Amino acid sequence: MRIPVRKELQLPSASFTTIELQEAHFDPNWHFHPHYQLFTVLEGTGTRFIGDDIRHFEAGDTVFLGPNIPHLWRSDRAYFEGNLELKTHGIVAYFTEDFLGEGFFDKPEMHVLKQLLEKGQRGLDITGSARQMVRENLKKIASNQGFETILELLTTLHHLANSSEVVYITSVGYVNTHKVSETERMQRVYEYVMKHFKEEIRLNEVAALANMTEAAFCRYFKSRTNKTFSDFVSEIRIGHACKLLVQEKYSVTQICYESGFNTVSNFNRQFKNQTGKSPLQYQKVYMRGGE
């Protein structure tokens, strides 16, 4: 995993752009850009990183992100191993606040849309029927062009602005504090954790990758991610465990050790702390399609 690189998206021929992504794996770079983003996963699984939030993703994952929120949909390792049966598919729409002219969203009639843009500064998970609406509308936008696409995008945003089926993603007060000059240092750390989370991860080794003492690294990591390094590693491991639980191929004990935990009791405790459920409860809720 790479640390957020600022991307400059080029939108030369339209007021906003929609891209249908169909690749062996999603972009492996953690990045941010000055555009709003509406994104849905149609196919693929992995770990999703948005700001200070980490969780498993699969087909159906749909979000609305404001500008400059670092994000990455990191495909599972199998997608990078040349398995031709595995592929990823998603649709993303990018736009700026002034894509219809400066002050457009400041007009009285656009008040609810302006509120949605403000909520997007923390990122929004889209759930329930709103998720299905966004997915279908993004498909329409991707297959059309011209004036119809603008109407479809505005209609989609209007429905989202009036929906209760959205949940904030990042924590209160989250701010992107990453600098482009720091990307190489953090890239080494994140890539190391993604590669070795199933094993014991020693703080002194990770701090050395960042060319820091252990204490300095812990302070640095907390200031940049709004969480401790140990919490970050735990979230990566729990996200992997969630994926294995929904596959129903392994016992809880097997999943515990496959995800990098040393004891079942510690695994159960940390899993419940992060998800609010025991591993078996999580599995049962998922199989019922949610509570």
UniProtKB/TrEMBL annotation:
InterPro entries: Cupin_2, Homeodomain-like_sf, HTH_AraC, HTH_AraC-typ_CS, RmlC-like_jellyroll, RmlC_Cupin_sf. Signal peptide: none annotated. It comes from the Bacteria. It holds the Pfam family Cupin_2. The keyword Transcription regulation applies. PROSITE patterns: HTH_ARAC_FAMILY_1 (PS00041), HTH_ARAC_FAMILY_2 (PS01124). This is AraC family transcriptional regulator.
